[in-house]
Design a protein that fits this description.
Elements lengths: L2 E4 L8 H21 L1 H12 L10 H10 L2 H24 L3 E6 L2 E9 L2 E5 L8 H14 L3 E6 L8 H10 L3 E4 L2 H10 L9 E3 L4 H10 L4 E2 L8 E5 L5 H12 L7 E5 L2 H14 L6 H11 E5 L3 H11 L3 E5 L6 H4 L5 E4 L5 H6 L25 E9 L2 H17 L3 H15 L7 H8 L1
Parallel strand pairs: 4-5, 4-7, 5-6, 7-8, 9-10, 9-12, 10-11, 12-13
Antiparallel strand pairs: 1-11, 2-3, 3-14
Helix pairs in contact: 1-2, 1-7, 1-8, 2-7, 3-6, 4-5, 4-6, 5-6, 7-8, 9-10, 9-11, 15-16
Length: about 450
């Protein structure tokens, strides 16, 4: 069992708080479903003090906004988007379509079809996550999505110019200055001014996450998302200052963001704790990072790297940073994580902002059963079949008849029977007249 050098504070689940979120989100969705644009405008005014003549930005207005963005910011956006685009293209190229002949004359195949319309949500508020435009929109366009509707909220009544520029450069077909549940609901159910989408993608606060959860089934979603997480695996070779900085880099996302260190070195663990205590008071984002570390931070001491990997897998963390003498061991030793960040030369923040892998990743243990957003999420993998050999169809028909009757599906059985009869001339026991007709 690992030794805890620092435990998370057990605060319990705020059931009432979650119920309040659910009730409010349900009310907003139902209102928008019933009253459309009028409801969207009222909720936007209430939450964001934002009610322009049109939430959708015209091409000319987009050009004006992009022109306001400093050249260096635009160049950086273009650089990062090219990293995301390159990685997504490699993912797409790894997905093969095929057609095989499994029996003589029996052809089975697989195709990848892009989803027709996607809604991309890019959060604003305290943290305008410009990078989310790269992750959701660029990846969708690489997949071949024809229409991407992008929504982001105004920030204190102002247009978030860099975010709009990122959406535009990523290839969004529509850009709306609209945030929160009202944006998610409008994209999902549609209004007089917005055609509904088929899939919603992108992170957001608890209300946005709950709206996506409620609408799942009516539309697809990328992931069920919770507070961001970081887990660092470090041995005695790691730099404790770097470890401390990296843990706090994710703790600043919010007061409920877990930050966990698993280490084989007691010295390193204690030094990391000391560094964090010195760093926190001077952090501009201390109001989020400090409660996150206090309530959800952990430092666990283990006896070996084997134990470190086993314990890390039990967390199934969104981000796992491996700062060890041989970080690539994690590629074969671990199986439950959203994204791996190997060695001191990389970090979770690279994945969040610049390196090209997608930062929309599973949280709250979902990495046990799913990976993160990727180009394949925007594709439907579909199958087809064709039987061109009469003898093969007759054989399949005979087996189908027997197999279906085991399950008491007589109608299915007869679909097999009629083909066996047609291609072999065998009688149909359940309808002699039709059997004769089928055999002609």
């Amino acid at each position: 069992m690992p030794e805890a050098l620092k435990n998370a504070v057990v605060t319990g689940s705020d059931r009432r708080g979650r119920d309040d979120v659910t009730e409010r989100v349900a009310a907003i969705i139902d209102d928008i479903r019933e009253r459309g644009d009028v409801a969207v405008r009222e909720w936007s005014q209430r939450f964001d003090s934002w009610s322009p003549p049109s939430f959708r930005l015209s091409p000319g207005r987009i050009d004006e906004i992009v022109a306001e963005v400093p050249r260096q910011v635009l160049e950086d956006i273009e650089f990062v988007q090219e990293q995301v685009r390159t990685f997504a293209r490699h993912q797409l190229n790894s997905m093969t379509e095929f057609e095989v002949e499994t029996l003589p004359g029996v052809r089975l195949g697989q195709k990848h079809l892009p989803i027709e319309t996607v809604g991309a949500y890019v959060p604003g508020g305290r943290y305008p996550l410009t990078a989310s435009a790269h992750m959701t929109i660029v990846t969708a366009k690489v997949a071949g999505v024809e229409r991407v509707v992008a929504c982001t909220p105004p920030i204190r009544g102002e247009v978030p110019a860099a975010t709009v520029a990122a959406m535009h450069l990523a290839g969004a077909d529509e850009i709306h200055l609209l945030g929160g549940v009202q944006a998610i609901a409008a994209m999902a159910v549609g209004t007089e001014s917005m055609q509904p989408v088929d899939l919603l993608a992108g992170p957001g606060n608890a209300y946005v996450a709950e709206a996506k959860r409620m609408l799942f089934g009516e539309v697809g979603i990328d992931l069920f998302a919770g507070p961001t997480e970081i887990l660092v695996i470090a041995d005695e070779t790691a730099d404790p200052f770097v470890v401390a900085v990296d843990l706090l880099s994710q703790a600043e996302h919010g007061p409920d963001s877990p930050a966990v260190l698993i280490t084989t070195s007691r010295r390193l663990g204690l030094e990391v704790l000391e560094h964090i205590e010195r760093l926190l008071p001077g952090m501009p984002t201390r109001d989020f990072a400090e409660p996150a570390w206090r309530d959800h931070g952990e430092v666990l001491l283990v006896e070996s790297m084997d134990e470190a990997f086993t314990v890390a897998d039990s967390y199934a963390s969104e981000h796992v940073e491996v700062l060890t003498a041989d970080p690539r061991q994690a590629l074969t030793r671990m199986r439950n994580y959203g994204g791996l960040f190997l060695g001191e030369g990389t970090c979770v923040s690279y994945g969040d902002k610049v390196i090209g892998t997608n930062h929309v990743l599973p949280t709250r243990g979902a990495a046990r059963y799913t990976g993160g957003l990727w180009v394949g999420k925007y594709l439907k993998t579909v199958t087809y079949s064709q039987v061109v050999d009469p003898q093969a169809s007759a054989r399949l028909g005979e087996v189908c008849g027997r197999a279906a009757r085991v399950e008491l599906f007589e109608g299915h059985a007869r679909s097999g029977d009629v083909r066996a009869a047609k291609f072999t001339g065998a009688p149909l026991a359940w309808n002699a007249a039709d059997a004769a007709e089928a055999a002609r």
